[in-house]
Amino acid sequence: MEHNILVVGGNGLVGKTIIRILKSRNPDVNIFIGGRKGGTGNHLKIDVTDPRTFRMIKEKEIDLVILSVNDKEDHILRFVIENKIDYLDITKPTPDLVKAYAIAKNKAIQSRIVFSSGWMGGIVNGLVKTLAGNMQDIQEVKLFVYYSVKDLAGESSAHFMAENVAKPFIRYENNRSVPVKHFLDSEDFDFSFGIGKREAYNFDVPDLYILNQIEKIPNVSVKMTYNSKFITWLLGAFQKIRLFNILSLKERKMIFGSSGNGDQSVFEIVIKTKNGNEKLSLQSTKGQAELTALSAVLHTEELLKKTHENKVYFSHQLHQPSSLLEKLKAYETINIKSSR
């Protein structure tokens, strides 16, 4: 059976990487690239701010839309639900994810609507499940993120940080919503893969919401550190003196907008149960764009099997946790260590 897949934002860093990995693993899939400029052949003009351009989605008989560009108004989401088209979104920061999820939950769903906006394409929550026999046994999840300014990075993550660094976000303590800010509340953590001990600071990712509100884990926190200890300390100092509050959006974008030529990306999951702690450490030697794109492809491959019923999902719900873990381990640029 032929599958027509549209990658909206397919000309961006992550979009291009999704297409490369998807083609290499699924050569029979027909891939269309959606962007504001469009073009010839499989390049379609799809502007998320202009629903009039969406007619091309129906004309090309698209089966699945992968959204790798931020659609603030959820125009694509509303269109795919109305037209019974499968959907995978890897782009949304927490506030936008909560809004989009509410929209989808209040609609009659006749396709698979998948939100994959957790850290690195939504794989963290699936990997959490590999560390405990039963999710109900988990009392706490801590996610530690190592971010390198040398890594290739798209604009969206930098823009999110610039827009939200001065605003509080929510972490969860005993099922209470606790407002916190980025780059405060430092915690020492000994990172794997030769990184060593670093100070890690508050960081907002959708996994906070998903693990508490969807998976019902009472305590969830996320901390991040940069490859440069000085940059990590400096951003914490900026937050303490409230410098971000007086900087313009343009100035904040300049701070967070750097991108290198490539570096490793690492995250570590630590869970606490009544039986003790477990840890999983993951390294992507080709960086966060490669890992995010691979995650999107693994979710896509699950949807291509046509074994999942029509409803709303978070991407980790598509997978058997052990199967997801093995697929990640099999990828040549990923290294995983687990205490289990």
TrEMBL record:
Please indicate which superkingdom the organism of origin belongs to.
Bacteria
Residue spans crossing the bilayer: none
What InterPro entries does its record include? NAD(P)-bd_dom_sf
- Positions the record marks as coiled coil are none
Protein name in UniProt:
Saccharopine dehydrogenase
